[in-house]
Amino acid sequence: NDTLIRVDNLKKYFPISGGFFQKTVGYVKAVDNVSFNINKGETLGLVGESGCGKSTIGRTILRLWNKTEGDVYFKDVDVYKCNKYQLRKLRLKMQLIFQDPYSSLNPRLTVGEIVGEALRDHGICSKEEISHKVSETLKICGLASYHIKRYPHEFSGGQRQRIGIARALILNPDFIVADEPVSALDVSIQAQIINLMEELQETMGFSYLFISHDLSVVKHISHRVGVMYLGTLVEMAKKDELYKNPLHPYTKALLSAVPIPDPTLKRDRIILKGDIPSPANPPTGCKFHTRCPYAIKKCSEEVPEYREVDKEHFVACHLV
Ligand code: SF4
Ligand code: MG
């Protein structure tokens, strides 16, 4: 069995309160019935505009936020049926790399303390073992061990993200949620960090859920890519398939904005009309119908089924 993570019909609704008594008057359906697997050693890229629910999925898989409905399995263990002790053990194997290396590192701790924190918390090794492991992990992340006694503010953005990656790797995890890991970095540094993340995966064998609002960022590192719109998955396929043969109008629109090096593959730019609707009050039927250039009457009335139209190619659109 190659499956590491299984997400079944996951929903995460945030209550909206209002009125004099601050009663719940509605819900933001941040994640609305999403299912997918991530295989061992695989990178699943997850793409969509900000607010579409990508980060919520990441945090709900890790049970940092509670789900509303649905199931999450890690190696066939039901993440939401674990008790506190089991969850603590599971957390050793599931890590998060944050978007913003500037705010995700405690400025009062040294790099050695930051990267070694999880080892100390879990009481797994002796002091000497910790400092040895910290140096080793920093080294594979491209930072020399003399940095151990320095503080986060002494580093550049790219170096700080290397520290964040080292912190996630120190426990030798099986699964890492990387939430916009390069979005806060200069474009010139982004490729370096993505290459490092890919090399580390190849040597250590873990899986990523790699979240980004940018299809060109996930292209290099992902094995499969999923596209989200307003809390739902609209399309998912193997990387090459998705970039060469996108089927959902939203994916086509996103891809039409990505510059392609091969001029013979020139695509027409599809400009989406209007703004992304509020997830508190999403459109009926296909949530994309208010912006879709191909929408027909049925689109505002019936929710399109998310189904496999080709091998490992899933799409939710009435016209496909
Ligand atoms: Fe567009 Fe209709 Fe397909 Fe939705 S179901 S993406 S509105 S064509
Ligand atoms: Mg986010």
Q: What is Rg?
A: 21 Å
Number of E-state strands: 12
Low-pLDDT segments, ≥5 res: none
> In angstroms, what separates the terminal alpha carbons?
31 Å
Order of helices and strands: EEEHEEHEHHHEHEHEEHHHEE
Ligand list: iron/sulfur cluster, magnesium ion
- State the helicity in percent bands: 25-40%
Strand percent estimate: 25-35%
Q: Major β-sheet, in short?
A: 8 strands, mixed
With strands numbered from the N-terminus, the spatial order across the biggest sheet is: 6-7-8-3-9-10-12-11
Mean pLDDT: 93
Number of helices in the DSSP assignment = 10
Secondary-structure class: alpha/beta
Shape category: globular
General description of the model:
With 320 residues, this protein is α/β, with parallel strands linked by helices. 31% of the residues lie in helices and 25% in strands. The strands form 2 sheets. The chain has an 8-stranded mixed β-sheet, with helices on both faces. A 4-stranded antiparallel β-sheet has the order 2-1-4-5. Helix 3 (111-121) crosses helix 4 and helix 5 (157-169) packs parallel to helix 6. The site of iron/sulfur cluster (SF4) has 13 residues, from loops.
Notable traits:
single chain, 320 residues, alpha/beta, 8-stranded mixed beta sheet, 4-stranded antiparallel beta sheet, 10 helices, globular, binds iron/sulfur cluster, binds magnesium ion
